[in-house]
Structures are given as structure tokens and as C-alpha cells.
Amino acid sequence: MKLHRSLRYWLLSALFVFGLAACSTPASEAPTVEVVEPTVAPATATSLPTLEPTATVIPTATAITLPEDLSVIPLVYGQMSGRPYAMMIDNHPDAYPQSGLNRASVVIEALAEYGVTRFMAIFPADITADDRPLGPVRSARLYFVQWAMGFGAFYVHAGGSPNGLALAESTNEIINLDALRGESSGYFFRVETAERFAPHNMYTSGAILKERADAETTPYSRTDVGYRYALPLPADQRGPAATISYYFLYDDAPVGWQYDPASNNYFRTRYGEVAIDEVTQAQLSTQNVVVIEVEEAPVEGDEKSRIDLKTVGSGKGIFYHDGLREEITWSKASESAPLQILAKDGSEVFFTAGQIWISAVPSLDNVSES
């Protein structure tokens, strides 16, 4: 199977050619934000795969201090400090391991083409302005631009599909930063090594992005961006250790998350192997896993077999947090509207304080749990 998979990705390559302390908020700077403390029913969590919801989160408006050991800065609704960055990050095998996914507030993963996925990592306006690399940066797709529009973001990419570029260059909902065009190219750099070669070697950094943001004269006026958060559930109310697995196109190319109740983290695997950050060499982890079903179809006549995803509308999904499972729906009312994750009653869900990882799969039948 490994030989078969390696051969597949070798053929695909022929077809188209950063632990936690790295971004932890120091104790003296731990933000106080308006989130909620969860009031939960007594835990009666059952083992996967039954996975019936076992905790009822009842929001109570309380100002709390977020945990000091968070590896990311949550995008708290109504409290955005400025325009976030939505960066396209490569997920071709020649791009492993990536740098900076562990620092993103939100990661959206979706198919690009040939069964290979791509990431859009959403970084907060106040990302640490240092020289740690972020990338490899890759190209735009129409549906990623539409998701970026929902954040009103700096859209960070290197080229893109014709329809993706057309939208990125024409909409006023984002600030377009294309590494391959015009003055934006000065905010990126390439790494040339035996392991890093074009097109999988384009990077930027928090310091560089901050420089670009400081030069921007268009004010950020969005008040509808961000998510709602709750403190992690106590250890005795979390679900049991479990594994979540899903695939996008090929069932022998799964993504996995292994839930650890002690740390309350979901640890990422890729094709059965540990997925790491290149800078820290630590395994990627998140506090919230959301899998949404999004309709996809090939772009007719596209010589590179690109696809489109129907991002405007709504659909079903699954939300994993604190070892628990909830059935949810996603909604995006227009290209410029935020991507919302909604509970069964139609209200917005409360994410566990930390990172949010959203995967858009063609079918929830591709998800398995154990």
C-alpha cells in the first residue's frame, strides 16, 4: 500500500509541478475576552462510534481570561483587533512538512485537484511579528477566495486558477497579496535547498506580513467576523480517547485525528503518519475538528483538472470537541458572508478555546470514527 501511494503521488508530481510555546501568549499578555463558561449536564460520554452528544453547553455571558498556554490567538467574534491574514498553504507531498499551521487561528482544508488538498490558514492581525517562516505559500482557487472574503482578510497566495485570480483581483472584500504579481512579490521569499524546490518553496513570515499591514490605508470595518468560544470542559466531562478519520477523494489517503483526553487535543496524522510543523518538529494538533460536506464538481474544460466547491449555501457536518461529537450545519449566505457553524437549534456553536480546523469533504460518508 505504501508503494502504491508513493507511486500515485510521484505521478501526481509529474502532472503538476513551526511546540506550543512558539506562539503561546505570554502570561502577562493573556487576553481577557468575552467568551463563555460552559454549564454542562453530567458527563455520560459513550465510546465511539455511537458518539451521541453528551454535553449541553448553555452560554452565560462572562468575561474570562483565556488559558495562558494557548498556541494560537482565537478570532473572538466582535473583538477582532484588525484585518486577519488568509494564507494559501501547500499540501503536496513535496511541501511536507509545512511551517506555521500550528499558529493559525483557523485552518480550512479542501481539495485542490488530483485528490490533493490545500490549506487556507487564517492568522490573526496580531500574529507575532517574527521571522519564523509561514508556508509554503501556494495558489488561489475560487472557493478559497470566497472563504477569505468572509473574513475580509489579506488574501495571501502565489498565483491561482483563472476564476480564482479574477475574483481575488476584482473584489473589494479582501486585500489581495499575490506573490507572483506586482509589488506584493516583495513580501515573499523562496527557500532553495535539496528538499525545497519550486513551486513548493515560497514563504513569508509574521514580520513581513506586519510590514505589509502597516502600509495598508484601507480600514478594516468588519464587525461580523470571528467565532464564539468556551473554556475547555473539565477532564471528568470529556469524552474518551478516540480516532477520527476521513478522506477527500481516495480512501487510501486518509487524514486522521487522535483525541487525547488528558491534553484535550486532537493530534493530526496524514496517511497514517504523524503530521508535524517544520519549525517546531512537534505534531500538529487542534482543539476543534469540524468536517463539513461541500458539493464539488470539475471545472468544465479546465486542462489542469481543477474543481470548484459550492461554498455559498448550507450543508451538514460534524463538530468534534472535548472528546464529544455534535451534528452541525454550515452556512454562508453570500460570497462576502462569514462561514458559520451552527448547532441543531440554528445558533452558532461555541468552540473550545483554541484552534479551529475545518475540513470540507465531498461526502460525510467519507468519515469514520473509532
Please render the helix and strand layout as text.
Blueprint lengths: L1 H14 L16 E5 L24 E5 L19 E5 L16 E8 L2 E8 L9 E2 L7 H8 L4 E4 L4 H9 L4 E4 L10 E2 L11 E4 H9 L13 E3 L11 E5 L8 E6 L4 E6 L2 E2 L10 E2 L1 E6 L2 E3 L8 E3 L3 E9 L2 E9 L7 E3 L7 E3 L3 E6 L5 E3 L1
Parallel strand pairs: 3-7, 4-24, 7-8, 11-23, 17-24
Antiparallel strand pairs: 1-2, 3-5, 4-5, 6-10, 9-10, 12-13, 12-25, 13-14, 14-15, 14-16, 17-20, 18-19, 20-21, 21-22
Q: What would you say this structure looks like, in words?
A:
The chain has 370 residues and is mostly beta strands. The protein has a single domain, classed as YerB-like fold (3-Layer(bba) Sandwich). The chain has helices at 2-15, 142-149, 162-170, 206-214; strands spanning 32-36, 61-65, 85-89, 106-113, 116-123, 133-134, 154-157, 175-178, 189-190, 202-205, 228-230, 242-246, 255-260, 265-270, 273-274, 285-286, 288-293, 296-298, 307-309, 313-321, 324-332, 340-342, 350-352, 356-361, 367-369. It has a ten-stranded mixed sheet, covered by helices on one side. Strands 12, 13, 14, 15, 16 and 25 form a six-stranded antiparallel sheet that branches. Strand 18 (296-298) and strand 19 form a beta hairpin. Helix 2 (142-149) runs parallel beside helix 3. The chain is globular and about 55 Å long. The two termini are 22 Å apart.
